[in-house]
Amino acid sequence: MITLPLLPFASEALAPHISARTLEFHYGKHHQAYIDNLNKLIADTELADLSLEEIIVATAGQPDKIAIFNNAAQAYNHNFFWLSLRPTTLKMKPGSELQALIDSTFGSLEEFYTEFKAAAVSQFGSGWVWLVNDGGALKIVKTANADTPLAHNQVPLLTLDVWEHAYYLDYQNRRADFAEAVLRNLWNWDFAQKNLV
Ligand code: FE2
Questions:
Q1: Distance from residue 26's CA to the centre of ligand 1 (Å)
Q2: Class for domain 20-83, per CATH?
Q3: How far is the CA of 21 from the centre of ligand 1 (A)?
Q4: Could you tell me the CA-to-CA distances from 189 to 55, 87, 173 in Å, in that order?
Q5: Model pTM?
Q6: Where in the chain are the domains?
Q7: How would CATH label the architecture of 96-196?
Q8: Radius of gyration of the chain (CA)
Q9: Which mean pLDDT values do the consecutive 10-residue runs of the chain (197 residues) have?
Q10: For residues 197 and 195, what is the distance between their CA atoms, to the nearest angstrom?
Q11: Distance from Cα 79 to the centre of ligand 1, integer Å
């Protein structure tokens, strides 16, 4: 049985960048639905007692398990997305180790923002954009629909949900503005640092 984790902040804590109304639907309806669907699909199967991460690895790349993979990966991706965010009032910068890696990989934090935003805008249709550790190298990667770096042996540090349900109530079709607001105001760099080690 997989359960919906509590949000790590109050529902109004991300405003004005992400509204409480968006969270009400995104967390309360979409995320909850992935968890509920997954539990129905794994009930009374050999997957029922596995962790979310184990279910993802066990079903990745298997056409007959695609519905289970999609719901498990979406449950995981959303868990990870909430942890990637911090309340608007909490000011935060990358720690020195992460800042040095960002500088050596992308040139500067500004150039990282530009590259990440371009990836968010260019992801065709639904999906996710991630900062990952790929064998010791920082990379920005895009995954389509429910796909997740866990299925590709990459360690995620941060993610941005670019499904329309993530931003449409607040930004309508302006995905670039949504990405910009999250990058500059809501990224949880402490969480990223924890995932680096
Ligand atoms: Fe989402």
A1: 6
A2: mainly alpha
A3: 14
A4: 28, 12, 27
A5: 0.97
A6: 20-83, 96-196
A7: 3-Layer(bab) Sandwich (3.55)
A8: 16
A9: 96 98 98 98 97 96 97 98 98 95 97 98 96 95 96 96 97 97 97 93
A10: 6
A11: 10
The predicted pLDDT at position 197 comes to 75
As to burial, measured by CB atoms within 10 angstroms (0-12 exposed, 13-18 middle, 19+ buried), residue 175 is: buried
Angle at 164 between CA 158 and CA 168, to 5 degrees: 110
How many angstroms separate the alpha carbon of residue 139 from the centre of ligand 1?
22
CA distance 33 to 99: 37
| Amino acid identity at 175 | R
CA of 167 to the centre of ligand 1 (A): 9
Ligand 1 centroid to Cα of residue 172, in Å, is: 15
Tokens of 157: 């540090």
Sheet of 137-144, strand order: 137-144, 127-134, 155-161
Q: Which residues are in the CB-under-5-Å shell of ion ligand 1?
A: 161, 163, 166
Query: Distance from the CA of 165 to the center of ligand 1, in angstroms?
Result: 6
Taken in order 18, 20, 26, 27, is the CA torsion positive or negative? positive
The tokens for 41 are 């699909």
